[in-house]
Amino acid sequence: MFYWVVKVFLSPFLRMFWRPWAEGLEHVPAEGPAILASNHLSFLDSIFLPFVVPRRVTFLAKSDYFTQRGVKGRAKRMFFSGVGQLPIDRSGGKASDAALRSGVRVLGQGKLLGIYPEGTRSPDGRLYRGKVGVARMALESKVKVIPVAMIGTFEVQPQGRTMPKIRRVGIRIGRPLDFSRYEDMADDRFVLRSITDEIMYELMQLSGQEYVDVYAQRAKDEIATARAAAAAEAAGLAAANGSPAAKPSKAPKAPKPAKPARPTRPAKPRGADAATPPDTGSATPTDGRDTSAAARHGSPGL
Q: Does the record bear Transferase in its keywords (predicted)?
């Protein structure tokens, strides 16, 4: 119920500001299970895709959305649960098996399952290598895979951007892919890779993205490492050159002038404009002036 309330509530805003267009909606079955395999450019993908598809779409979402604390965490948990998203642990191993079972269970109920084969959002708008979980789900549940290309959502709200831009977005849906020829081969890793690559090829054709044959998470890690190294190098150069980028040290305070009654010399101030310290040497004057201690240290003005 909450799913449809959210959809009805958001529809006017989505239509007004982003005017989403859709192609290929006829490829989505009116009933029965199917996998919607989509590229992943933005957080907004999980909003715009269900908006244009007439049927309810259940997504597998990362468990972080459901475990955050505080008011914000509860609001997120309520929203994602209400719109039909299921939490999954993406740490791998047994967690991957649990995610697989969750997806197969949704498909067994005759629902549409939305999944992002890349596993995470693209860091730069390119299409990255798919993970084989989508292929395993397709074989174990014996359903077709419908490729879906999100277009323009990266420009609206890439990862790291808080407020979305106002720009038109689109959804292009391809023909269903039937992998029944690989029935009973869900444990063959070469078959799983072949199916996944075929899905990613269709996504590349639909979206027009450049394809990169590495996992998106690895690309993110490499980008983060490179940025950290560049920042450290820049900070080191700035510190060596005395650039404002480095934190400046406090300027030394100017020394206080020596009191007249003391015979010691004041510390020499730094800087080119510093005054020459007074000469306290014992040279005998030749102009007949009184050089007694009283005369030298007499009161000013006398």
A: yes
Cβ atoms 88, 99 nearer than 8 A: yes
**Annotated domain spans of the chain:** 2-213
Q: For 2-213, CATH number? A: 3.40.1130.10
What the block records as the tokens of 107 is 């498909």
Cβ-contact 48, 171 below 8 angstroms: yes
DSSP symbol at 234: H
Cα 122 from Cα 109, distance rounded (Å): 31
Helix 2-17 vs helix 70-82: angle between axes, to the nearest 10 degrees?
100
Strand partners, 35: 113, 145
d(CA 143, CA 128) in angstroms, rounded, equals 24
Contact by Cβ (8 Å): 219, 123: yes
Cβ atoms 147, 49 nearer than 8 A: no
pLDDT tens string for the chain (302 positions)?
678 888 888 889 999 999 999 999 999 999 999 999 999 999 899 999 999 999 999 998 777 777 778 887 788 777 777 777 887 776 666 667 888 888 999 999 999 999 999 999 999 999 999 999 999 999 999 999 999 999 999 999 998 898 999 999 999 999 999 999 999 999 999 999 999 999 999 999 999 999 999 999 999 999 889 989 998 988 888 888 876 554 544 545 545 545 545 544 445 545 444 444 444 444 444 444 444 444 444 444 43
In the chain, count of helices (H) and strands (E)? 10, 9
- CB 37, CB 127: distance < 8 Å: no
Give the residue among 101, 104, 87, 82 at the shortest CA–CA distance from 35: 104
Determine whether 300 is exposed, middle or buried from the number of CB atoms within 10 Å of its CB (0-12, 13-18, 19+).
Answer: exposed
